[in-house]
Inverse folding.
């Protein structure tokens, strides 16, 4: 995709937040699933005014970036599935970050 032609897409951001929230809920990660649902609802209601809240979920100590989906952390999966689960979380998180960068450029 030509990045110069890329435009912020709040609906895409909402879709990605919801997808990641469902994935995390599937593994029993209710805290972050609820946080992402909350942020998705905020983006849906407030659009541009909600992006800072979404960004805050990904930065700093104890943020979503620190989350590891692991059986040892009480998540509902087998040890053999941990790598693929974390790869999936990382991929969706990266897509959300890319959407947020587009938002920053258009502001």
């Amino acid at each position: 995709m030509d990045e110069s032609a890329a435009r912020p897409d709040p609906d895409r951001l909402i879709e990605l937040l919801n997808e990641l929230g469902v994935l995390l809920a599937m593994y029993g990660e209710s805290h972050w699933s609820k946080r992402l649902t909350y942020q998705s609802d905020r983006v849906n209601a407030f659009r541009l005014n909600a992006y800072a809240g979404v960004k805050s979920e990904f930065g700093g100590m104890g943020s979503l970036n620190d989350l590891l989906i692991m059986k040892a952390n009480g998540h509902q999966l087998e040890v053999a599935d941990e790598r693929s689960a974390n790869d999936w979380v990382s991929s969706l998180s990266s897509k959300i970050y890319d959407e947020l960068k587009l938002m920053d450029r258009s502001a």
Remarks:
- The chain has a mean pLDDT of 90.
- Helices lie at 10-26, 30-46, 51-56, 82-106.
- Residues 82-106 form the longest helix (25 residues).
- The radius of gyration is 14 Å.
